[in-house]
Write a structure and sequence with these properties.
By secondary structure, the protein is mainly alpha-helical. It is about 60% helix and about 5% strand. Helix 1 runs parallel beside helix 3 (about 65-90), helix 8 (about 190-205) packs across helix 9 (about 230-240) and helix 15 runs antiparallel to helix 16 (about 385-405).
Length: about 725
Amino acid sequence: MATPTWLSALPAALAVVFWVLVPGLLVTRLSGLRGITAWGAAPLVSVSLIATSAVLGTLLGIPWGPWVPLGAALLVAALVVVFHGFLARRPAGSALHRGWGPALRTWEPARRARAALVRLQTPRGRFARTPEPLTTAMPQVWRTSAQREGPDGRHAGVAALAGTAVAAAVAWLTVVLGFGPVDQLSSTYDAVFHYSAIAHVLGTGDASSLTLGTLTSPTSSEAFYPAAWHGLVALVAMSSGSGVPIAANLTAWAVAAVVFPLSALLLTRHVVGRSAGAAFAAPVLATGFTAFPWALMAFGVLWPNLLGVALLPAVLAVATALLGLARDPVLRPGGAAALGAAGVLALGFAHPNAVFSLAVLVLFPLVWSLLALTRRRLSTRRFWQPLAGLAVTGGGVALVVWLMVASPLLAGVRSFDWPAFTSTPEAVLQVLLHSTNVRPALWVLAALVLVGAVVSLRRFATSWLVPAHAAAGSLYVLAASREDALTAGLTGAWYNDSFRLAAMVPVTGVVLAVLGVVTLAGLLRSLLQRFARPAPARRGVPALLTAGVTALVLAGTGGLYVPTHASVLAGPYQQPGDTLLEPGQREFLERVGTIVPEGAVVAADPFTGNSLLYPLTGREVLFPHLIGSWTPDQTVVAARLRDAASDPEVCAAAAATRVGWLISGPITFWPWHGGARWYPGLHDIEPVDGFEFVATDGANTLWRLTACDDPQGVAEPQP
């Protein structure tokens, strides 16, 4: 078989771009969204459709495949079309044409409730005031210049497309240099589970987040584990014909190259407004921060977190629209609410701690919105509205804090403790220089973020970015530099893991950096207008200058620190400290896959790396991860399989688990880990009876279990 190359993997790259864009874009376009909003929200809706349809498909007994999310997308799109058809049949003056608020106020039960409320508020002896009559909206015939330019202004769409293309190219170069071969494996602890989970989805047709956890907890019929990532990678493998490693690597590239840049673009559009220059700069700058996406592609490896944080800016953008802080908004409250619900589902099924990240960041625009409401309503008859909003917000904050600090639901998550590794001043400096987790400082981006922070404080609607950015950085500082109860409580929802917390910083950092670029472009324009003769034409100059400044940043930082980010990726892929597969072992496992028949189960100590037989070949292994809550039969096989010829209980356990093959080999991954001593029955096979030699690579050996071939299930003991 020919060695795969990055060129030959293009079908997988196109497949993953299709899955993260097309289902969501179908729904957003038919919902009436256009321009940056439609494209920026598309990955959010796509992931929500994929993850939700996977759960519903399993509940309905439908095996996972491309037709499941596509069917869900078509169904939702059809419902949208039906709703818009119903809306189009309403009279021109219908309140539905002006949004959900007027529609609900004119709904007959709502009218009666409002009239009753007015009567209660009216002094006795006076007639209740009825709601004011509706005015008839006149249909608009002639399109204005703003409508001709689209919802984002002139040339913003082209600029966004160009910026996203640059981001995709930068990300492609980074992963090519960092991963090495396109099918390279990540030699990390979590990667074993994630690879096996993808193989499990492909083998069983079950991509539900409600059942994926049974992979390592087979004693339970249901066990939650966020499966949006695994379902997405399985779709890529199915639709492109690529193997699990290639599908996983190209999906990671797409999250860094498409999902996060578009998500950051959507947030930038809501914060900055109609700006072609910002539309170009946002996706490009989204590839420049080490903490996200590159660190999460290397550490762990935290692929579900990678997907969740990549979607976070889009959900935050929807929140700004709902809270009235968006500049030149295009989302109506009803559409924003529906998109927000889809976004929370997507975050929860990608990784639940992305929901907690959203809770932290959205608190600040929520407080800003309450301040604005207080200023408008406190001295009016509706003074109770900001007070009610404050009470609801306080209750929500208390609930989130309880979930993070005291809830038994997250007790297992809070029990993790990553030791502090630096001092508090050093951690603060790392946040300021975007060198978290002792990475090289990103001086240019740090300067842009600082400029953007100063500029954002000049407008009320954007000033929330600074405290939100500071809050994310503060959580990282706590995890990186302190060991106390406060730190454990506040960071426990993220496993007290500094890498996961550092990934929150670029969510607001990208927007602040864009504001910094736009500000520098504005200063440059002022200089040109002062000294240039003749003065440059007005139209198009700001966008060109912003794109020029972005290009200078790109060129002056080596493609936004491509060498730095590639070296971060190269750690677990090309220069791992702990190797999952020794040289030649992968080829041996691929040969084993041609020997072992379909439907057979192979026992192997996962600390030898041989459990990767499952994702590499599709042949099921008994232990798909290094540790797990194994069943009693699995425990018997792990401890005593080598005694099958003399122990009847072993053959009963082998029959119950369908084990007929064994791969023995040396423990090479984390030999110091306590779990490396859980599988003594899978070693030292050669001197004992009951096993037939099949193949070897010199270090690892494939055996067929013959001790249990007796029709009664137990072989006669050897004399």
